[in-house]
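Progress note, sequence design subtask.
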């Protein structure tokens, strides 16, 4: 990343974030969506199926 010109602080942040993901910090979804929207969360597949027309030319 540094060799491609990315600033050191950004490269460090990317590596740190990837380490966190590898450790599983995002493996279990939280309840934020349900708390904020008062609707059950859904998968990306369900969302795309429900809004397919928005993604078609």
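Output:
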């Amino acid at each position: 990343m540094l060799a491609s010109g990315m600033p050191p602080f950004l490269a460090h942040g990317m590596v740190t974030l990837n380490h966190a993901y590898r450790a599983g910090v995002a493996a279990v979804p939280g309840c934020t969506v349900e708390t904020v929207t008062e609707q059950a969360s859904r998968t990306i597949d369900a969302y795309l199926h429900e809004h397919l027309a928005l993604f078609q030319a």
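The chain has three helices and no strands. Work on this subtask will continue into the next period as scheduled.
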